[in-house]
Amino acid sequence: MIDTYLLEQLRAVYECGTLSAASEKLHLTQPTLTRSMQKLENIIGVRLFERTKNRVHLNENGRLAAECARQILILEQDMVNRVRALDRSSRMLAVGMISPGPMLELNPLLASLYPDMTIATELRPEEELLQGLNQGIYQMIILNHRLEDDGLCCHPCGSERLHFAVPPEHRIAGMKACGFKDMDGESFLMASEVGYWDHIVRRQMPKARFLLQSGMEALNELVRASSLPHFATDLTLRLYGRDPRRAYVPISDDAAVEHFYCHCRRDDERKYLAWFQALERRLKQV
Q1: Which residues pair with residue 152 across a beta bridge?
Q2: Which of 83, 117, 152, 277 is the most buried (most CB within 10 A)?
Q3: How far apart are CA 19 and CA 271, in angstroms?
Q4: pTM for the structure as a whole
Q5: Model confidence over 231-264: pLDDT tens digits?
Q6: What is the pLDDT of residue 78?
Q7: How far apart are CA 148 and CA 210, in angstroms?
Q8: Beta-strand runs (E) in the chain
Q9: pLDDT digits (tens, 9 = 90+) for 99-158
């Protein structure tokens, strides 16, 4: 039986190229690392190193052993991740999302359907969400498009339209709708935690300047003290209401509307059937 620490040290020797570099990376003395490698050779029963007067390096056996060690350590970490994910999924329902809006409105519904579970939401780029769903880190993910994947199921969960929020004296304040191009070049206050919307507004208004603020409470304080425009959505307006000191102008471009879809692994669809049925009923009422 080979202890994990010996495999980790062997991998470090292979990656660093020398015992001295590996010992520095591992924060070990070189004699300590040398003794570990001798112990590993004794366990396996073959020489892993070529030793000359001025140099100690892995031989062909050692390079093969190091590659096997790398694969074993990957499998070990995968085991740990999967077991932890299974345990977490029994107590926690983790939802990853590309934009914060949908779960602001849907989180109370989800919590009411699964009262014995802790609901955790996390904002991440799509690539990380997909990886997290595959690894069991998330039980569900919310994207702004459908995924064509036989291993996943997908259910619509709402939409969101972006608005400009401007002072009453602003030139667009009386308009029924306004395009991105009409506001390109202006400065905006914007929350730093807006997910996919950040990419939308920057792409659509390349000449605009965005003053980012972390935390909605701090952003709202700035909005109250500033005449700069900012952003709102129909969803946030439903939840938090309208500031009487601002005019809200819907953005007319197609890019200002996002449709959201909740995905889970197909094996879990029956487990969360009540949630997907609730989403369907809710969309019919909107």
Answers
A1: 265
A2: 152
A3: 51
A4: 0.65
A5: 999 998 998 899 999 999 999 999 999 999 999 9
A6: 86
A7: 35
A8: 49-51, 56-58, 92-97, 118-123, 140-143, 152-166, 187-191, 209-213, 230-233, 247-250, 257-265
A9: 888 888 899 999 999 998 889 999 999 999 999 999 888 999 999 999 988 999 999 999
For strand 140-143 and strand 92-97, is the pairing parallel, antiparallel, or unpaired?
parallel
Count Cα neighbours of 104 within 13 Å in the Cβ-side half-sphere.
Answer: 17
End-to-end CA distance of the chain: 62
On whether the CB atoms of residues 95 and 139 are closer than 8 A, the answer is: yes
What is the Cα–Cα distance from 214 to 192, expressed in whole angstroms?
5
3 state SS of 194 = coil
Q: Look at residue 188 and give its three-state secondary structure.
A: strand
Total number of residues shown for the chain? 286
Residue/partner pairs of 67-71 with CB below 8 Å, 24 or more apart = 67/14, 69/7, 69/8, 69/10, 69/11, 69/14, 70/11, 70/14
